[in-house]
Amino acid sequence: MAQLTQDVEKHTALYVEAFNAGDADAVNAMYTEEAVAVWQPGTPLTGQARIDSVREFLARGPRMTAVPRQSFVTEDTALLVVDWSIDTTGDDGNPEHLEGVGLDVLRRGADGNWRYAIDDPYGQQK
Predict the structure, then answer these.
(1) Runs of H (alpha helix) within 1-126
(2) pLDDT at 103
(3) pTM above the 0.85 mark?
């Protein structure tokens, strides 16, 4: 079960916890229904394609670290700037290291919890 939070500062840590546990349902619950994810630059995913992509990627057993660099909150919208890295297995079966500075837009839901509306891990080049 997803651990959602009303504290935007805790959102990233809960996401990493669910991600590293391989819990695709918990990870997907941390997104709004209409969320956009851009896990490959220039290829935004929404809806079922985004959900399926999470399941497929987590099946590889990736490990993530992520540290928020900055957060900006106004009413029900937040922008997080996050330094992250992922160690995983590439399509060729070899180890792969990914990293970037993500720009994430979160929206506070009617339940008071924060969820990703836009997840752009490569939003800022290092």
Answers:
(1) 8-20, 24-29, 47-58
(2) 95
(3) yes
